[in-house]
Automatic annotation (TrEMBL):
Keywords: Cell membrane, Membrane, Transmembrane, Transmembrane helix
The organism's place on the tree of life at top rank: Bacteria
Cellular component per GO, a single term: plasma membrane
Domain RDD: 26-171
Transmembrane segments annotated in the record for this chain: 34-52, 72-92, 113-130, 136-155
Protein name as catalogued: RDD family protein
Keyword Transmembrane helix: yes
UniProt source species: Paracidovorax anthurii
Lineage, opening ranks: Bacteria, Pseudomonadati, Pseudomonadota, Betaproteobacteria, Burkholderiales
Lipid bilayer topology: Multi-pass membrane protein
PANTHER family: PROLINE-RICH ANTIGEN HOMOLOG-RELATED, RDD DOMAIN-CONTAINING PROTEIN
Length: 177
């Protein structure tokens, strides 16, 4: 007769997670590592979306239809993030064991995921807004953007539950999966 091995706690001895433990925010280091990994994965999304855009618009140069291309990528990113967040996790979030929930711990709706997507542009819009009026070079904007990302991430330390502020405004939260 084959024997089976049981992994994990003995049956009946599992402790249910407390609501507070289930909604605890992952460490800032883990969230930022996930954020960086998400950025790397987005290269694939940008490549496929760019190829589709260039094929449909018959663009011969990356700067052809630049404003329309940026709008197209904004919509593609919105679809990508809204779809995955409404299901709880992107691939990067699965890798780093992070899940998106609403403020009560329930899965987020597509509407709330879309709101989070729009508000998540706070990671980039403030420094990018300086690009035009101040006439800064791309290198200067890159340095300012990196500084702003660090400040925005550290501002989560001032949130009572250590959540990013765009999550608080969207009624969402990142939790340990």
């Amino acid at each position: 007769m084959p024997t089976t091995t049981h992994r994990g706690p003995a049956p009946g001895t599992e402790r249910p997670e407390t609501p507070a433990a289930a909604l605890r925010a992952p460490s800032l280091r883990r969230r930022m590592a996930c954020w960086l990994y998400e950025g790397i994965l987005m290269f694939g999304v940008v490549f496929i979306a760019g190829y589709l855009f260039d094929t449909l618009s018959q663009s011969r140069h990356a700067l052809d239809h630049r404003a329309v291309r940026m709008g197209f990528l904004f919509v593609v990113f919105g679809i990508y993030f809204t779809w995955f967040w409404a299901r709880g996790q992107t691939l990067a979030m699965k890798t780093w064991h992070i899940r998106l929930r609403d403020r009560h711990g329930a899965p987020v709706s597509q509407r709330r995921a879309l709101l989070r997507y729009v508000l998540s542009w706070m990671w980039f819009l403030p420094p990018l807004a300086l690009l035009g009026p101040l006439g800064l070079s791309a290198g200067e904007v890159s340095v300012i953007t990196l500084g702003w990302v660090a400040v925005w991430a550290l501002l989560s330390r001032f949130h009572p539950e250590r959540q990013f502020w765009h999550d608080a405004w969207a009624g969402t939260r990142l939790v340990q999966a």
